[in-house]
Amino acid sequence: MSKRAVLEVIALDAEDAVAAQAGGADRLELVTDMAADGLTPSRETFAEIRARVDISLRVMLRLADGFAAGDVDALVRRAHELRSEGADEFVLGFLDEAGGPDMTAVEALVAAVDGCRWTFHRAIDRAADRDALRKQLADLPGLDTYLTAGAAGGVDDGLPTLLAEAARGGEPGYEPQLLIGGGLRLDHLPGLKAAGVDAFHIGGAARPDGWDAPVSAQAVATWRAAVDG
């Protein structure tokens, strides 16, 4: 039996989460403050969402806009708080001034989440060397996904990179699943799926009326059908 592709949807609150699950999402990325491109939600928000849906929840660990870690101790405290509330999947990713992975911050958070599965997010699209970043992170426990558009500008710009990386699946540093998001459109899906990509991430595409409106279950269902088609 074939395993269906993953459809991950950004959720800001319980209303988003319920709609996304109703539309067929497999997993949610939980964030707050999309004006800052997605920050860590409160433990109360996590708890409310966890009580309302039964699909996987990946919680963002990020306290400020940009890809610098900032206060690592504060990030670690938030990770511990969320773990104590039951969170068991996370999203994180930080770069140093040279554009490499901030290993001090990443390793501190990986230790804090203590074996949980996690996604390295679109910081990879700002990295000085994507291949080197992957190899530096390759041995960290729990890393099972890269959320990427292939380029800082989005999937349109990054498509050649995404196809090349999909072809390298299973090589050292390329074992984690490619989760494609960042300007992703329905017309991108056929080529990505043909290349073997089996995980897709949407935010604004799940909200036809914009970020001030909630997730639309119908919009998610349209994506579910396209991902499965």
Automatic annotation (TrEMBL):
Pfam family, one: CutC
Signal peptide location: none
GO molecular function, one term: copper ion binding
Superkingdom to which the source organism belongs: Bacteria
PANTHER family: COPPER HOMEOSTASIS PROTEIN CUTC, COPPER HOMEOSTASIS PROTEIN CUTC HOMOLOG
UniProt record similarity statement: Belongs to the CutC family.
Protein name: Copper homeostasis protein cutC homolog
